[in-house]
């Protein structure tokens, strides 16, 4: 296991990058502690896989360093970084049995056969594959093949880090939650450093202790799932995390007062800075249909089980609210109340309010 440090890391696929837009990864400084469970979360093209390939040694960064426990490994090849990687598509040998697939990484390193047997059976039990050890991998379902791929990463006891690159993409949705739960359980049992790359917020938030949210090659926030939901530091985080995401609404600020559609909006605390673009962010969970407030018109309502998402219009702006009551009919006139403690000002995308103390 290892502490992973990314020191002033940047990367461009161009030979002579001229500016920030030429970099797939803009400057990243990160420390991941030994034994932690982390997720890299963001949409396609945000730089997640580039960063993973740099950590694994498949790609050398244009600038900066990668350190494992303080040792510079930036220019070391993957086989000298002592890592394990699980890919989107299962990497297994179909003609081998499940047992031999799990044993292969250990046998390839000359591990004693008695230890190989003990370790294979231990990992097979964790993954609920004991009754399939003698089966050929080609005869297994996709989820069990991916279990083998995970097991090949987990079976080694000497790895610095295990990295998962969108490992559940090809898995049937009904089985994803089981594998996610199993992976979380495995991490708690073996406490090895794990980095999980995904564009799926549910996978990231249910697996990781700390989530690194990326956009356009930048890290826009690092935090626990609760921190990312409750107080997004950037409008992208607010919009990307949550279903539906945070309402991001343009406001004008005058004399320390934010006004949305001409109505003063009470914020979580004082405004500490302004920018060229000012917006408020408030999650639908904290927008209430009230007897007074900001006038709006109901456009539609979606019953999603435990609650209903009511989509309203304030002028040309969509504002979502969540209610557990019978929603108003489309076309109904309503009033919206934003919970002040959950209403935040953003300047040029970044949070610009403090919490009242």
UniProtKB/TrEMBL annotation:
Keywords: ATP-binding, Cell membrane, Membrane, Nucleotide-binding, Transport. One of its GO terms (molecular function) is ATP hydrolysis activity. CDD domains: ABC_Carb_Solutes_like. Residues 4-241 form the ABC transporter domain. GO terms for cellular component: ATP-binding cassette (ABC) transporter complex, substrate-binding subunit-containing. It comes from the Bacteria. Belongs to the ABC transporter superfamily. PANTHER family: ABC TRANSPORTER ATP-BINDING PROTEIN (PTHR43875:SF14), MALTODEXTRIN IMPORT ATP-BINDING PROTEIN MSMX (PTHR43875). This is Glycerol transport system ATP-binding protein. It comes from Jhaorihella thermophila.
């Amino acid at each position: 296991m290892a502490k992973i440090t990314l020191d002033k890391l940047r990367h461009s696929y161009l030979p002579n990058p001229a500016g920030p837009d030429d970099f797939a990864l803009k400057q990243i400084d990160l420390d991941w502690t030994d034994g932690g469970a982390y997720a890299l979360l963001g949409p396609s093209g945000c730089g997640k896989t580039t960063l993973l390939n740099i950590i694994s040694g498949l790609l050398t960064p244009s600038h900066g360093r990668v350190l494992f426990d303080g040792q510079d490994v930036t220019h070391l090849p993957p086989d000298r970084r002592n890592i394990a990687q699980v890919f989107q598509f299962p990497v297994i040998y179909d003609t081998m049995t499940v047992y031999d697939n799990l044993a292969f990484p250990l046998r390839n390193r000359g591990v004693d056969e008695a230890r190989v047997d003990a370790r294979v059976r231990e990992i097979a039990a964790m993954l609920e594959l004991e009754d399939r050890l003698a089966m050929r991998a080609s005869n297994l379902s996709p989820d069990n093949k991916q279990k083998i791929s995970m097991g090949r990463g987990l079976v080694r006891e000497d790895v610095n880090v295990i990295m998962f690159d969108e490992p559940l993409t090809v898995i049937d949705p009904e089985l994803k939650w089981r594998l996610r739960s199993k992976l979380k359980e495995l991490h708690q049992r073996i406490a090895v450093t794990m980095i999980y790359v995904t564009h799926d917020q549910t996978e990231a938030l249910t697996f990781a202790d700390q989530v690194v949210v990326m956009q356009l090659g930048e890290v826009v926030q690092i935090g626990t799932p609760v921190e990312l939901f409750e107080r997004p530091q950037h409008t992208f985080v607010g919009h990307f995390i949550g279903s539906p995401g945070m309402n991001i609404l343009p406001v004008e600020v005058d004399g320390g007062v934010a006004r949305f559609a001409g109505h003063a909006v009470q914020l979580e605390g004082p405004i500490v800075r302004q920018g060229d673009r000012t917006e408020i962010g408030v999650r639908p969970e904290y927008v209430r249909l009230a007897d007074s407030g900001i006038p709006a018109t109901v456009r539609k309502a979606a019953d999603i089980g435990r609650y209903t998402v009511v989509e309203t219009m304030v002028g040309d702006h969509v504002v979502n609210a969540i209610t557990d009551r019978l929603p108003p009919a489309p076309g109904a006139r309503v009033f919206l109340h934003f919970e002040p403690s959950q209403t935040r000002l953003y300047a040029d995308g970044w949070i610009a309010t403090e919490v009242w103390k």
